[in-house]
Amino acid sequence: MRPADEGNAREPVPAPSARPSHEKVMDRLFQQLLKVPSPKTLAHLVRFLGTWTGTDKFFMLAQYGSNVLVAVLLFLQALRKRSDKSSVIQRLVPRIRALGSLTADARILFRIWAILPMVQWMLDLERHLPVTRNLKLIERLQALSMVVYAPMEAAAYLAMHKILPLSDVVQNELWLWGCRLWAAYVVLDFWHIVEDHRMLRAEAKALERSHGHPTPVGAAEKAMSDDQKATQHLWTQMRARKEALLTQFWVNVGYLPLTVHWSVSTGLISEGWVGVFGVIAGLASWRKQWKATA
Predict the structure, then answer these.
(1) Are 73 and 89 in contact (CB under 8 A)?
(2) Is the pLDDT of residue 1 over 50?
(3) Which of 19, 57, 114, 132 sits CB 3.0–4.6 Å from 286 for a disulfide?
(4) pLDDT in tens, 110-158
């Protein structure tokens, strides 16, 4: 071989080594995931929990659901008439209560800056006043109650954790008066729903006079005229607004007993009922935010 050919000569390429068996198993396992259709519910849940409200409602159900579970377990134990501290129920109850306490604490911590959106709400309210005198009064009172409530709750929470130097008596007063303001907000929100429903009925009657009844749901969209499609869209919006009012009504049904209970130093209802009303408010709030993130 000539010297020039020696530079062009290539070393033989070694045969690729066999891949380890565990890599093949891993590849096969993950390739099976390609056969699974993309789950829309999982994607929706990720969007839901990615919002501050969605996370709060998740913790809310954990908080109040733990109250309900504790009440059920204690009821079952009472039926058995057993007070043995070594029983499964006696071991579970403190753990479930600890979960409820942790989630309750986390929810207050996460909304400690709630004064900021409240102030923003007040500013926007004056720039975009409600259409009726009653709604303007309701929303102004609601905004005032929340702007005062938010810093009271934050101060009481920080004092409870020994961050602010406030006595137990002052903390108690902050919690009580804060909850009274919250209860006032809920009562005003019931009034808001009544006013909204009255306006919605008036708009529905006006829509019926101008555009007629909605096209039956089963009608083919291709067979509809442009006017029928527009009318159908308007009635769909009406139904969505009515459904939103009903959802907000159930949110308030859950919150009103809770806020009144917390407004009294001795309380009014048991731990189990706190859980029941909290779950009602939590489920309705979850439904509201779930639709908002669809």
Answers:
(1) yes
(2) no
(3) 57
(4) 998 888 988 898 889 888 888 899 999 999 999 999 999 999 999 999 9
Distance, CA of 97 to CA of 103 (rounded, Å): 10
Over range 23-45, report the average pLDDT: 79
Name the region of 2 (left: φ>0; alpha: ψ -120 to 50; beta: rest).
beta
Q: Find tokens 């769909």 and name the residue.
A: 236
Judged by phi (left if over 0) then psi (alpha if -120 to 50, else beta), residue 267 lies in: left
Q: Which pLDDT value is given to residue 141? A: 96
Q: Give the C-alpha separation, 30 to 209, whole Å.
A: 60
- Among candidates 101, 105, 109, 139, which has minimal Cα distance to 122? 139
Measured distance CA(156)–CA(170) in Å, rounded? 8
The pTM is what? 0.82
CA-CA distances (angstroms) from residue 244 to 99, 193, 241? 31, 10, 5
